[in-house]
Queue: 2 jobs
Job 1
Amino acid sequence: MALTLHNATIPAWLQIIAATRTLVDKAEEWCTANGEAEDAILEASLAEGMWSFNWQINSVWMHSAHAVAATESGTFEPNFTDIPASFDACRTKLDTARDALLAVDANALESRADSNLDFVLGGTVRMSFTAQNFLLSFSNPNFFFHATTAYDILRMKGLEIGKRDYLGAPATKPA
């Protein structure tokens, strides 16, 4: 069976989105157990000048569901207008990404693989891709970077989480 664009992106994104959602739950539990406000996590970043945890969550959505939607319009413009401001909003953003990805028609996505997709920032086209190259060489690495950075922020804050928490439930061979 040939590997499709859908199979190369959507299942892994769904896996990591589910795991990241669980990490949000663990972050909330940690805040409660340690008497910390949500902002102790939501506004935390790894280094000065880096995006905070809630921006990382927004970017997980952006480089999955928003990126796939861009294959339909032919334009990807980063969306920084709805940064989650609470753990509930983080879960909602991740649920929105999950639901959008579950609704993707694999054949329709495959039919758009060779179509043009422009990366636009500040009203200017910065890079042009095929939809396939955009998803595989731009959004996919960005997706994993931001999911990993969200995980790393939680580790930095002292949460007792490990690799299995990041990976979630891998797609194993059926019994």
Job 2
Amino acid sequence: MSESKDLKDRILQMRQDNNIDTSKVHNEDIKTIAEKEVGLPKTLNSENTKKDLNVKKSKEEEAFKLLASKFNQSVEVILELTKRVEKLETLVRLQSMQSENVKSNKTENLRAKKGKNKIFFLTMLLLGGVYLVYFFKIDLNILNEIISEFSSIIKK
């Protein structure tokens, strides 16, 4: 929780440091560079031009260093976000594997219960048939004759 808060704070700090929308950055940089080039006085003195070039180079170097540091900060934030996304992906994978495992256990339990229920009902049906034959004294001679007829048909 505190890590995500720290990361949000860093992102907000970077936005406040830049103080500009990303869509406006490119256009404003081009405008300021063009204004600086137009505003430079053209002198014939070579020493002044060398100093101006040195000043211009040093400003460009400072701007480049500033841009590089901002880029490095952005890369750090992106790397942290990437690590967190990878952690979340692994957590999601683990949870899905666990839920699949639980589902497979439930289906196995249901199959086992169905098998037990089938055996129970067949046993009850058999006991019910034996009960009817025994207590109501059903004549099974007809059944014996039917079985003998089937066996003679099969033997032929």
